[in-house]
Write a structure and sequence with these properties.
This protein is of the alpha+beta class. The chain has helices at 3-10, 13-31, 48-59, 65-82, 86-102, 105-108, 111-129, 133-217, 223-253, 268-277, 295-315, 350-361; strands at residues 282-287, 316-325, 329-338, 365-371, 374-382. A five-stranded mixed sheet has the order 1-2-3-5-4, covered by helices on one side. It is rod-shaped and about 135 Å long. Mean pLDDT is 77; it is low at 385-417.
């Protein structure tokens, strides 16, 4: 009781109209006597039964292709028994086509062999009926054309339709993939810009804020110290503005193969000098024979040191920087003492995230966290050598063995009380 409404719901109005028109045309042909008379005394109305069965198959050709073929085969079988008519044979070809086009694909493969056996049966019948070679060949040829050609046509149309659907699906998937890639590209650009802005402008602004806070907290500074501090603030402001203008210029220029930054390891002494100028005590040393490195590796080393020193300026004091050239990697270690109860410049933690992203994109690893009353940052960045990637950072050098950077003559800004 429940399957009938579902079947009726799948019926197509066009199929029903086509079935009515085919039955009407077939009835006219039967009325005109267009059929063979195997049974001379058979009433004419009986011939409308096989025609009606095949036309009923047309009604459900898409809703139930299996039943369409079953009804058509029964009708055509009756027609073969009582005498073939042109109308019923033509409608039965549509039943065969509909099943090949809309039926289950694994069952359609069995349809052609079954129909081929039917064609052979017609040939055997012709041999028994007449026996002449011409008649046998004619019957076989007609049966093959009537029965096999609609099946072949249905299979060809089905394959073409499947290919069209597959191409449409591929086009849709390609469009979705292009959209996803576009979103990923935008996200990558936004992440890159956020990282660059933080690593450049934000660090300068942090230094300015800390210097300004210290000047506000100390009321007993002499004129020379005040002038030195103001010069440091002005220098940080000018350098920060220059970095901001450079990044904005790159954004306006578009993609011309220019990178956002090209800092190198040999620029670390300048970075250390700037940090000392704003009041941070820094000891810097480098180990191992210096050599040429890929640009992205040098930039990552610079950014790790820059971010670690910026955090030391905000939250700690007395920083130490060790950069080691190793066989297959660059090792960076930055530590600083923590200031209990300090009031640092607010931050969102984006610096550590950006630093970690840079190193991991190059296949390296980063560890940052407290170590007693100190904060440690350890980074290992591969450079493409053949050494042991799992080796530890070198131990601190003995007294006199390191190459510390000379301290500047500029007086550091006093810490706020």
């Amino acid at each position: 009781m429940t399957s009938q409404p579902r079947l009726l719901g799948r019926l197509r109005r066009g199929d029903a109209i086509a079935a009515v028109l085919l039955f009407a045309a077939g009835a006219v042909l039967i009325g005109l006597g267009s059929y063979e008379r195997y049974v001379p005394d058979l009433p004419t109305w009986v011939r409308f039964i096989p025609l009606g069965l095949t036309c009923l198959g047309v009604v459900i050709r898409r809703a139930a292709p299996g039943w369409c073929l079953a009804l058509g085969t029964v009708g055509f079988g009756i027609e073969v028994a009582i005498g073939l008519s042109l109308a019923t044979a033509c409608v039965y070809t549509d039943n065969l086509y509909a099943y090949a086009r809309y039926g289950p694909q694994h069952k359609v493969r069995l349809l052609a062999p079954g129909v081929l056996l039917a064609v052979v049966g017609f040939g055997v019948f012709a041999v028994l009926d007449d026996g002449s070679l011409v008649r046998v060949l004619t019957v076989v040829a007609i049966a093959a054309v009537v029965l096999l050609s609609p099946i072949a046509t249905g299979i060809i149309v089905r394959q073409a339709h499947d290919r069209a659907n597959l191409e449409a699906e591929r086009a849709e998937q390609t469009a979705r993939l292009a959209d996803v890639r576009g979103r990923e590209a935008v996200l990558r650009e936004r992440t890159l810009m956020a990282r660059e802005l933080h690593d450049t402008v934000a660090n300068y602004l942090s230094a300015i804020a800390l210097q300004s806070t210290a000047l506000q907290a100390r009321k007993d500074l002499d004129a020379e110290t005040m002038r030195t501090s103001i010069d440091a603030i002005r220098s940080s402001s000018v350098e920060g503005l220059a970095e901001l203008r450079r990044i904005i210029g790159l954004l306006r220029a578009g993609d011309e193969g220019e990178v956002l930054a090209s800092y190198r390891v040999d620029q670390l002494p300048d970075l250390v000098d700037r940090m000392r100028a704003v009041g941070l005590k820094v000891e810097y040393e480098i180990q191992g024979p210096e050599r040429d490195l890929p640009g992205e590796v040098e930039l990552a080393v610079y950014r790790v040191v820059q971010e670690a020193l910026a955090n030391a300026l905000k939250y700690g004091s007395d920083a130490t920087v060790l950069v080691a050239y190793r066989t297959d990697e660059m090792a960076v270690r930055v530590g600083n003492a923590l200031r209990p109860g300090a009031d640092p410049v607010p931050g969102g933690g984006a610096g550590l995230v950006g630093m970690t992203e840079r190193v991991r994109l190059l296949g390296g690893k980063v560890h940052a966290g407290p170590d007693g009353d100190h904060w440690r940052v350890l980074a290992e960045i591969p450079t493409g050598g053949m050494g042991d990637l799992t080796s530890r950072l070198p131990a601190p050098p003995e007294e006199g063995a390191a190459r510390p950077l000379p301290r500047t003559d500029r007086s550091p800004l006093p810490e706020p009380e």
